[in-house]
Design brief:
single chain, 239 residues, mainly alpha, 9 helices
């Protein structure tokens, strides 16, 4: 009797459109644990590497990259806890966090590598220590990849349209702008050199473009999810 209930209980934790079982003490837990080890390695680098930012107002949270890494860490921690406890509440919390964490980390990767391709001096201050390649990837590649895999393979579908995506993205983009201006007022420098080069109108344009790009990433992830897992079909009632 017990054995016949186990498969049903396992399936009940998985949405019909979800590619792989989660929460689960298997592949899902492995992805979250591996992600957290990478994130911890990069946070350790921040603590042990001499950098003027270490003593400045806002610490490394002046960088959008570190804000994104923190969101990724919170999301993966919640995901791992849900795997270990098989808690549906923690699983729901992880999925809610990933809706913001995944797009913002993909946006960070796009902006960082695009600007670096144009000129590394746009995103890397002269006074900042140069990043080893493994650390660079840990900041600007691995969080986006890990969260995307989690969202596509271990998460149920979510419904988000263009207008809410624009609203959330605009709030994050201009909230970050307010934050770095506050830090600039105390520290006298911007975390990214590109902010120094742009006028006020230029910074407004940059953040507006970033908000639109993040909204596009969010809706693009939803479309990609449907490609990977299929699209829900709502049956119409017969009259």
């Amino acid at each position: 009797m017990m054995s016949s209930k186990m498969p049903a209980q396992k399936l009940s934790r998985r949405h019909p459109m979800q590619r792989l079982n989660a929460p689960e003490r298997g592949l899902s837990a492995l992805l979250h644990a591996a992600s957290l080890m990478s994130f911890a390695y990069n946070f350790r680098y921040l603590y042990i590497t001499p950098n003027p930012v270490n003593e400045s107002y806002g610490w490394h949270f002046q960088f959008l990259t570190i804000i994104g890494l923190s969101l990724a860490t919170l999301t993966s921690t919640t995901g791992l806890l849900s795997d270990l406890t098989l808690s549906s509440a923690l699983f729901t919390a992880k999925n809610t966090l990933s809706i913001t964490a995944a797009p913002i980390n993909i946006l960070i990767s796009i902006l960082y590598w695009s600007l670096r391709l144009v000129d590394p001096a746009l995103v890397i201050p002269e006074w900042a220590p140069r990043l080893p390649q493994a650390i660079d990837w840990g900041f600007h590649v691995i969080p986006a990849c890990a969260l995307t895999l989690d969202l596509l393979l271990f998460s149920p579908p979510w419904t988000i349209t263009w207008i809410p995506a624009v609203g959330v993205s605009s709030f994050i983009a201009f909230g970050y702008w307010f934050w770095i201006e506050k830090c600039f007022g105390v520290n006298g420098f911007y975390p990214y050199p590109i902010f120094e080069l742009l006028s006020l109108k230029g910074r407004v344009g940059l953040f507006a473009t970033s908000a639109a790009l993040m909204a596009g990433v969010t809706t693009g992830l939803r479309s990609l999810y449907e490609v990977v897992n299929g699209k829900a079909v709502v049956a119409k009632k017969r009259t």
